[in-house]
Amino acid sequence: MKLSLLAAIVSASALLASCSQKNMNSKDQTITKEAQLEWSGEYMVDGCGFKLTIDGKDYKPEDEATIDDSFKVEEGTVPVKVTYTETGETIDRRCGLSTQDRSMPGIRIISIEKL
């Protein structure tokens, strides 16, 4: 009886350990990188909000409202240092009357500052 109980506890522990390792993926990691932040206008006036380019790849912040208004520069891009996590989801926010696919990997911004 004690041996089967011990075997059950060991099996359960191994199962829990493997589950927690599977959940530790890239979307749980906090990443800090230099990036280019682009502002293309408010959604309500046919703009497309913010886009971050990190290592040549475009990302859409899921929480654009956390980005300060001082980053809303309409001439080109702003070099920034951003700390973020990947959401693991694709964000596609259509802008104005455009039918163009603007889907990008989503990120959650932890902090952002101008360089």
What is the CATH superfamily classification? NigD-like N-terminal OB domain
Number of helices: 1
Strand order of the largest sheet: 1-2-3-5-4
What is the molecular shape?
globular
Rounded to the nearest angstrom, the radius of gyration is: 21 Å
CATH topology: OB fold (Dihydrolipoamide Acetyltransferase, E2P)
Strand content: 35-45%
Q: Tell me the count of domains.
A: 1
Give the CA-CA distance, first to last residue: 65 Å
How would you spell out the order of helices and strands?
HEEEEE
- According to DSSP, the number of beta strands is 5
CATH architecture descriptor text:
Beta Barrel
Average pLDDT: 81
The residue fraction in helices comes out at 10-25%
Which runs of at least 5 residues are low in confidence (pLDDT < 50)?
15-24
